[in-house]
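I would like you to help me understand the sequence and structure tokens below and explain how sequence relates to structure.
___
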Amino acid sequence: MSLSMYQASIPGFLRMLGNLSAILHKAEAYAAERKIDPGVLVNARLAPDMHPLVRQVQIATDSVKGCGARLAGIEVPSYADTESNFAELQERIAKTRAFLQSIDAAQLDGSEGRQITLKFPGAEMTFSGRDYLLGFVLPNFYFHVTTAYAILRHNGLQIGKMDYLGQA
């Protein structure tokens, strides 16, 4: 049996969003324990020209909610990008997870050939559903989740590979 578009996307998205949520819970507890203003961690970045933690979470969730919606042929939910603390980031992740859970396999399976067009200021990219998922969304999503992990690890949070990978 071949791997379906649903199997290649939604379960992995849900798992990694759950892992990201768990890491953010640990970061919030770490900040309280160490008497660090949580805003310091939420706004931390790896390098001056990189997005802070808050934006990494926003982009990661945007990537997968957009993917699920586009592959299913439904409207992409719009989030305001106004999060400024751990509770709001957790709410965003939960909202994204709930949206992804509302998409069933029948909506995604067969979307390999669906044309997906993304419009950016001054540019437009067109993919097949397969290439959009495998060559654009997955690398982008994992980049931003990994960067969120790295920002927190860099700031002293004691997390390791199993926190990133979570439970199978």
In short: The first strand starts at residue 115 and ends at 120.
